[in-house]
Amino acid sequence: MINIPEYALPSAAVLILAVAIILFSITERKTYYKRFVTACLAMVTVPLAFILNEYLAYALQTLVLMAVANLSRDYYKAGFFKRKKDLMEIFRHDHPDYREHKQLLYRPLRDIESKERVIEKKLAEIEDVENKLREREFELKEKARELKEKEKEIRQRGGSE
Amino acid sequence: MIIEQSIPIVILIEIMAVFLVIFSLRHLSIARRFESDVDKGIVTWFMAGLILLGMGSMANMVGLFGLHSYLVQGIPFQAFWVLASVAFLVGVVKLRKS
To answer: Which range marks the domain in which residue B20 is found?
Structure first.
């Protein structure tokens, strides 16, 4: 066993968490997982209570972890419903073209992810074709320019003769 | 008193703590998929902190049961509190920078 004073580690944890809380309190950014971050930082009460009484620390640890678990569930639900709302917005009108895609809403998340991967692959293919077309367009423009120059030269020769 | 002797309350609390951490991690791992890459990084640090807290609870249990473990032998379980605090601090710093 490493010889460390009994209250050194809890005190260090309290200090580090206190710095984190101060930094967090001056953070301007507001996100919806802020409550979750706050709950994590409330862990400061656990080592602090450990210095006073061991059992008090265990009680507080349970309370804080229950809060974290509850908020992580809220955070998960918020993300899920945000996504569902976005999808509902896309397929709000019952368009025949989108009817098949609308079914995605009622499928498990993994199906949606596999569809996303297929779409991403297709988009990459489209981008590839677009790049090829752009190159071809550039080549054709170059040829057109060369032909125009040749035409000009021929006209100039015809005029001088 | 008999209950306390057969199953110490601390062990029950620590088992519950590990389950609560697993429960939280399960939801967070799904929720972070909907976030941007920056926010994913921030949530990952908080998840790391929670994992360390769970490991601290397990280390405490190993000590309470008087078991031998190559992973946590000689490490006081409070060391995981310090590591978890550092992970939370990194998460907050990243949140401020983003």
So the answer is: 2-97
